[in-house]
Structures are given as C-alpha cells and as structure tokens.
Design brief:
14 strands; 259 residues; Metallo-beta-lactamase, Chain A; six-stranded mixed sheet
C-alpha cells in the first residue's frame, strides 16, 4: 500500500495527498476543497503535485481546484456526470487511469447516492471514497435514492478487506455513537470507539479505516444483519421487507439522530 498524507480543511474535511511509490515527493491531490492549506503543505514538505482527483462536485471538495491550478499546471480528474472546475479528464465506471510521470494508477467506480455522479478511486491498496462511505457511517442522500446508495456501498464493501479507506470527513466519533445505538452489543464497534476517542482527544485522524473493519462496525454496510434490521424495525415500529428498506430507514434514522 502506498503512503498517503492528509491536509485538514474547514471544520472536518480531509484533503488527501497520495505519494507516488516510485518518487515519494510526487503526490496526487484528492478533493481539494480549499487551496491554501494544500499549497502550504506542498511547500512545507517540498512536494510536487502531479494531478488533482475529485470525487464529486460539492464545494468542500472542489473549491480549491482553480487556485491550485494557478500555481501548478496539472490535470484535473473527476466524474464525467458532474460539473467540476477545470476538469480535463472526465471519468466513469470501469475507467483506469495512470497519472502522468508517476506510478500512481487507479480504477474508477461509480457510486451514485450522495450526488448523482459521485465516483471513487480504487488502487494502490486504497480507496478514496469522498462522501459516499465514512467510517461507521455514509453520506447523506442529496441527489440519489436509497437504492442507488445501497448498491454503491455494496460495491465498496465488496473490495478486499485490507483495502485502506480514505473518506472526505472526520465524522467517525459521532458516527460510532449512532452505530452503537443501532448495535449496542457490537464488540468491534465498542473497541473501535475506545480507540477513536483516544485518537480524537489527541486531535489525530481516525482514518484511514479498512473495508474489513467497516464491514464489522458500519451499520450502513450491515442492513442484512438480523440485529441491525430488528433495531431499525423497533425504532420505526414497522416491519421492513428488504435490505434496501432497512438501509433507507437507517439513513432516515441517522438524519434525525441527535447523539
Ligand atoms: Zn459532499
Ligand atoms: Fe463533503
């Protein structure tokens, strides 16, 4: 697996800098919502950006693209179905990219739900999943249906369990409060909460997670598990007939959850 640095932006965004394994001073920038902290990090660590990778069109993920391009003439990759500033390489499911002058290569997965054209970058033992999958949570449904999001999350959950998962926000601690409300007896989630609280107390990132860990702790990947279904039915006072119905109900429950 390749080495990845993080830059903090706004309240809780992460902008990821993926190092080229063949030349670690070269980096790909993922979801630069803000240019300034990225430019500072590049300079301070003497890094040379080779490309910008965007997962979706929200301002907190693309807001810094144009300012970075004023300093570096590099390509911008992003979803073909969304408006990304200065996009040079529109991407869709099944595309593979090899970033110029580097050993960095990724394949693309379409993961609609949070936005209609959201994509993720998978490669180098890692997945960069923007606002689709969070540790112990998932993105809100702004432009897609619960069905689409459920299919997108299932696609990510099917990646190898050692895959390192880099998402767009530091939401893990709050997400775990919800996860443990749904599954109070989930020992993996309990143990992870202890670790995450210690990390956050020191202001450390709780990411990357792994796909394997998320399968054990993330209720949004667990709508087929009987205890998750039962908890959701109990909360709603209603029988849920399908996995998608459980997922949709869980998402609505989380939307109104104040933990
Ligand atoms: Zn977003
Ligand atoms: Fe976001």
């Amino acid at each position: 697996m390749t080495s990845v640095l993080h830059v903090c932006a706004f309240e809780d965004n992460y902008i990821w800098l993926i190092r080229d394994p063949g030349a670690p001073e070269r980096v790909a920038i993922v979801d630069p919502g803000d240019a300034e902290p990225v430019l500072l990090a590049l300079e301070a660590q003497r890094l040379k950006p080779v490309a910008i990778l965007c997962t979706h069109h929200h301002g907190d993920h693309v807001g810094g693209v144009e300012e970075i391009l004023q300093h570096y003439n590099i390509p911008v990759y992003g979803p073909a179905r969304e408006r990304i500033p200065a996009l040079t390489h529109p991407l869709k499911e099944g595309d593979r990219i090899q970033l110029a002058d580097s050993d960095l290569s990724f394949s693309l997965l379409d993961v609609p739900g949070h936005t209609a054209g959201h994509i993720t970058y998978y490669g180098m033992g890692a997945v960069f999943c923007g606002d689709t999958l969070f540790s112990a949570g998932c993105g809100r449904l702004f432009e897609g249906t619960a069905e689409q999001m459920h299919a997108s999350l299932s696609k990510l959950a099917a990646l190898p369990e050692t895959t390192a998962m880099y998402c767009g926000h530091e939401y893990t601690e709050a997400n775990l409060r919800f996860a443990l409300t749904v599954e109070p007896d989930n020992h993996d989630a309990q143990a992870h909460q202890t670790q995450v609280r210690a990390q956050r107390a020191q202001n450390l990132a709780t990411l990357p997670s792994t796909i394997g860990l998320e399968r054990r702790i993330n209720p949004f990947l667990r709508s087929a598990i009987p205890s998750v279904r039962h908890a959701t039915e109990k909360h709603l006072q209603q029988t849920l007939k399908s996995e998608v119905a459980v997922f949709a109900a869980l998402r609505r429950w989380k939307d109104s959850f104040r933990g």
